[in-house]
């Protein structure tokens, strides 16, 4: 099965090449180092069965390649950050490995890939998409930008997410930070046991609920939140109470 690596860090690329070499049924046909290299290669070569791809490259995101050159290849993303989980699984991803990659984790991902391959007994494209959807991981950390610096925020440190002027912010004990997500996207990748969308503007973390007022309407006080009060939409009250009791 033909395989391609997309990785801009040479040590990481060499390690992945060595690990892939441990699997005799995988044939590495190319190692690409940038979005530019990727666009050129995929426009001029037959696409492989499987792609191992870092997400953040020196000249952009690897997503940029496949948004311009669609592929039916299966993807295993390799990255130091998991904030791109949702977008990854929209682009044929069957797994999402956080660096540093261990041989055991790689073997599990490859076995998962093999399980998605067509067989005489099963697996059509709809079945594969269903399997991939079930494999979605939950977001555990988010990369935010502060001026010219980057910061990793663990989602278990986030009191709430809220939308303001078309930007979604996360609130921690220290301050708020703008994110690249929408609240709809966060609903798909956050742990639903911890996070709940109380209305169109706010999503809260149960670990930071300070108080809940029930009259004349449901209002939630969080340990850390913006000045605006957080109310539960009327059509969400029942779901909210169910969520609190689970």
Automatic annotation (TrEMBL):
Keyword field contains Phosphoprotein: yes
Query: Is the keyword Lipid biosynthesis in the record?
Result: no
Every Response regulatory domain range: 2-114
Q: Which ranges carry the HTH LytTR-type domain?
A: 142-246
What keyword terms does UniProt attach to this protein?
Answer: Phosphoprotein
Which residues does the record list as 4-aspartylphosphate (modified residue)?
54
Q: Which InterPro entries match?
A: CheY-like_superfamily (IPR011006), LytR-like (IPR046947), LytTR_DNA-bd_dom (IPR007492), Sig_transdc_resp-reg_receiver (IPR001789)
A single GO molecular function, which one? DNA binding
Q: Which domain of life is it from?
A: Bacteria
By what name is this protein known?
LytTR family transcriptional regulator
Q: Which organism is it from?
A: Kaistella jeonii
Organismal lineage? Bacteria, Pseudomonadati, Bacteroidota, Flavobacteriia, Flavobacteriales
